[in-house]
């Protein structure tokens, strides 16, 4: 029987997940469809119950439901517990298990670049995405992680939980040339004037990542590139978080390089990373 998968969110119409997963299902000869479901917060519980009743085989969860879905699931894996957020659900015997593949997706994408795990790394931002990334970097063996954030208290809390250092923004800006890798995880990425951190002291040899992928090149990445840094946008994270979900559902590791090119083209750009 044909299997079905979904992504639930509000809004959801612009999601690229259906394109990505349907492409991989087709490529691997799997008889399945992946559909976007617009679910408002007040309907979340009914939506989850209905999906169980209708025999869904797996699903993704995006904003604003990543935390609210947790009490509606049967099991939670350790990463999702640490992050207190779920983006992927696997189904076995009608039991729903929540995972979070965002952080590991980012790390897989970063590791396709020449980064040195022993060199100092700076995370800019301390929201949900930064949280997943900080835990995943620690698990992947990065030894010197600092976190800075507009609201310093949140950087302190995350640093305490992940065994990292918290830096006030002014200190992070002054010490920027010390970091081999800088990761921009805030939601700031649209306007030229509003960089979340000044890049004046950024060194030319750093790897600089922005997890935003639409636009493909944020003002932050443009400035880092102009300074001679190797830059990485958020398409790789998006594709790799999806690939890890696909692997959990099917046991197959899909081709991420090809998908990064396809998604980049869909977003109107050349393949830059
Ligand atoms: P959150 O709302 O949890 O966190 C937002 C972060 O941005 C906080 O650190 C916040 O700082 C900071 N911030 C917001 N506005 C400003 C500002 N004007 N100046 C400085 N800092 C600011 O969001 P998420 O962590 O869930 O998502 C962040 C971004 O990551 C989004 O743009 C999202 O699209 C992207 N993302 C990309 C993914 C991918 O696959 N590539 C996956 C997941 C997310 P403060 O604490 O001070 O409010």
Automatic annotation (TrEMBL):
Domain SDH C-terminal: 234-262
Organism: Planococcus dechangensis
SUPFAM superfamilies per UniProt: Aminoacid dehydrogenase-like, N-terminal domain, NAD(P)-binding Rossmann-fold domains
UniProt-annotated catalytic positions: 66
UniProt cross-references to InterPro entries, sorted A to Z: Aminoacid_DH-like_N_sf, NAD(P)-bd_dom_sf, SDH_C, Shikimate_DH, Shikimate_DH-bd_N, Shikimate_DH_fam, Shikm_DH/Glu-tRNA_Rdtase
The protein's name: Shikimate dehydrogenase (NADP(+))
Domain called Quinate/shikimate 5-dehydrogenase/glutamyl-tRNA reductase: residue spans: 117-187
Domain Shikimate dehydrogenase substrate binding N-terminal: 7-89
UniProt: NADP(+) binding residues: 78, 125-129, 149-154, 211, 234
Family that this chain belongs to: Belongs to the shikimate dehydrogenase family.
Recorded GO MF terms: shikimate 3-dehydrogenase (NADP+) activity
A Pfam family: Shikimate_dh_N
Alphabetized UniProt keyword annotations: Amino-acid biosynthesis, Aromatic amino acid biosynthesis, NADP, Oxidoreductase
Keyword Phosphoprotein set for record: no
This protein's pathway: Metabolic intermediate biosynthesis; chorismate biosynthesis; chorismate from D-erythrose 4-phosphate and phosphoenolpyruvate: step 4/7
Catalyzed chemical reaction(s): shikimate + NADP(+) = 3-dehydroshikimate + NADPH + H(+)
Taxonomy, superkingdom: Bacteria
Keyword Amino-acid biosynthesis: yes
């Amino acid at each position: 029987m044909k299997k079905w998968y979904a992504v639930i969110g509000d809004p959801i119409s612009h999601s690229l997940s259906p394109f990505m997963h349907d492409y991989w299902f087709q490529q691997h000869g799997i008889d399945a469809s992946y559909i976007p479901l617009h679910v408002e917060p007040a309907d979340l519980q009914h939506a989850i119950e209905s999906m169980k009743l209708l025999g869904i085989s797996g699903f993704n969860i995006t904003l604003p439901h990543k935390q609210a879905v947790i009490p509606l699931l049967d099991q939670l894996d350790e990463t999702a517990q640490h992050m207190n957020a779920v983006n992927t659900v696997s189904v076995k015997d009608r039991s729903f298990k929540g995972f979070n593949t965002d952080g590991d997706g980012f790390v897989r994408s970063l590791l396709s670049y020449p980064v040195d795990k022993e060199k100092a790394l700076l995370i800019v931002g301390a929201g949900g995405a930064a949280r997943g990334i900080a835990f995943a970097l620690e698990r992947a063996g990065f030894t010197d992680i600092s976190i800075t954030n507009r609201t310093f208290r949140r950087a302190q809390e995350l640093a305490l939980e992940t065994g990292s250092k918290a830096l006030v923004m002014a200190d992070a800006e002054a010490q920027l040339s010390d970091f081999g890798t800088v990761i921009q995880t805030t939601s700031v990425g649209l306007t030229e004037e509003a960089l979340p951190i000044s890049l004046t002291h950024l060194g030319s040899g750093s790897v600089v990542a922005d997890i935003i992928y639409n636009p493909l090149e944020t003002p932050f990445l443009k400035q880092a590139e102009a300074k001679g840094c190797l830059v990485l946008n958020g398409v790789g994270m998006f594709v790799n978080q999806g690939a890890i979900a696909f692997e959990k559902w099917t046991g197959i590791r899909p081709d991420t390089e090809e998908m990064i090119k396809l998604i980049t083209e869909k977003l109107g750009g050349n393949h830059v990373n």
